[in-house]
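ok so for the tutorial part 2 we go from a plain amino acid sequence to predicted structure tokens. step 1 is just haveing the sequence, like this:
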Amino acid sequence: MSPAVCRFAPALALLGALLLGSVACTKEQPVPAPTTFPSDRVAPSPVGTNQIVLQKTFALKGTATFPFEIPAHAAQPHLHGSFQSFVREVHGASDETANIDFQVLNEEQQAAFASNRPSEALFSVEGSHNQEINCDLPASMNQPAKYYLVFRSSDGSRGSRVVEAGFRVDF
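step 2 — the prediction. this is what the tokens look like for a chain of 171 residues:
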């Protein structure tokens, strides 16, 4: 090496070490996760709306179950409607011989009912052929909630009945 290069060699070595160190110590910074606030998780409120749950005429031989869902953030859901049952045909005999049972169940109660385990209902009517229903349901909070309308022959017979039912939920 020439004397001029030797004189600058320590400085060049130091400069090279600094450059190498700075490149080696530079790490990519992780991209920060977006900040979420409670208001970011708020869904539109269904308050002031309604939903048709069941509007149907159907044959009943044993049990008929109709599921429906309450959307999240429903503070005071209210189920209302009516049913009327007839023997064998719509607008046929509608007296005690056409009586049926009616229940409103949540998911846990429906699971017990389907397994023939004893359970309570949120709302029930026994032995009726013409009934108006008004029932407050629990608030759904942050998650939707599933419920079931259950109709069944009240005397345990498999005799043919026809049911006209109309239900809706107001939020």
